[in-house]
UniProtKB/TrEMBL annotation:
Entry keywords, A to Z: Cell cycle, Cell division, Chromosome partition, Cytoplasm
Extent of Acidic residues compositional bias: 214-224
UniProt name for this protein: Transcriptional regulator
UniProt xrefs under SUPFAM superfamilies: Winged helix' DNA-binding domain
Alphabetical list of InterPro entries matching this protein: ScpB_csome_segregation, WH-like_DNA-bd_sf, WH_DNA-bd_sf
Organism annotation: Methylocystis echinoides
A GO BP entry: cell division
Keyword Cell cycle (UniProt): yes
Gene3D superfamilies found in the cross-reference section: Winged helix-like DNA-binding domain superfamily/Winged helix DNA-binding domain (1.10.10.10)
Location of region: Disordered: 214-233
Amino acid sequence: MSRVTAARLDRDLSDLPEGMRWREWMLRAEAAIFASAKPVSRETLARLVGDACRLDALLADINEELKGRPYEIVFVAGGWQFRTRPRHAETLRALAGAKDAGPPSFTKLEMLALSAIAYQQPVTRAELSRLAGHDISRDILGQLKSLGVIAPGPRAPMPGAPIAWVTTARFLEMFSLGSLRDLPELDTIEDAGALGREIDDTVEAALDDALGLAEEESAEDSALDETKLEAWR
């Protein structure tokens, strides 16, 4: 909705009884979120309802009505978006061609690189390699970039001005995070120290848990990872 069209919308609905006004605001917010491919910001929703509308309470009421449904409205990447409930992810993955049914499968090193970028961004490839204790290749970063979860950030202030990598809004959407502040506390990262020290298995496992990627690796994945590790040693 353009700002001009929104300006013509009767936001206050002052001619309606209070209950009907609240119901109409609920329907507007739900329709806007349903129709959007991206998270809908508070600012956008505020243009659809009156100044007296308490948006958090409005969205809570919508979610209350969705309790029996396999989807809900969640706050991700700075806005609200419809999401299927996590317990249905396995069902959706079973559907051929299902998309956006949770995070894609990452290899061990891809996941490690992504986790390190999430917590240490902006960070260069060389810094990532030192942190991981393994070479984080351009192919790994290219794969993460192709999935839309990382992007080139500012040039690092060091010789050669290498690219420093950052996570994206897609990363927040994929892991159902409202912002980077919602990343789980990771005391073990601090225990491991600053960049330049090797990350040990304990920290790696904590990173897996933190991003909900602690699923058991398949034998095939493990074999693949070992092959990659051998190739980089």
